[in-house]
Amino acid sequence: MQNARCKMQDARCKMQDARCKMQNARCKMQDAKCKMQNAKCKMQNAECRMQNAECRMQNAKCKMQNAECKMQNARCKMQNAECKMQNAECKMQNAECKMQNAKCRMQNAECRMQNAKCKMQNARCKMQDAECKMQNAKCKILHFAFRILHFPGGPPGIRTQNRSVMSRLL
Fold first, then answer.
1. Angle between helix 159-169 and helix 2-150 axes, rounded to 10 deg
2. pLDDT > 70: what percent of the chain?
3. Is 97 helix (H, G, I), strand (E, B) or coil?
4. Which of 29, 148, 149, 159 could anchor a disulfide with 154, C-beta 3.0 to 4.6 Å?
5. Residue 148: which residues within 8 A CB-CB, separation 6 or more?
């Protein structure tokens, strides 16, 4: 009976050993499943890291584009300021030109006035010249009349000329 007990004990141990082996196999299977699940998680984690890296790169690109837009905006503002400055310079030059034009008009008016004064002076001179010629003619007539009165026959040698002049006058 001892032998039967030992055999039974031995059978129980073998069964227990089989159960343990089965349990061990289950644990190994569970461990393999966990390792597979862990590998999947690691892959998903790597994918997430890649997506995160891509998002960071995309974010960096957006920041760069935003910086470029800001620079472009600053350039536009600078160009706008330059245009305003040039516009102001043009307005100043226009004002200077208008002033210069007004000065020229004033000088032209002064020249016209001076020209008119010169023409008036010239007319006076011509009138004085005409008066002088008239007085000269009067003097010649008086001189001629004086000679006729003092020399009724005319001075010697000119008698024939004076008679012809006198006949023209009378």
1. 110
2. 88
3. helix
4. 159
5. 154, 162, 166
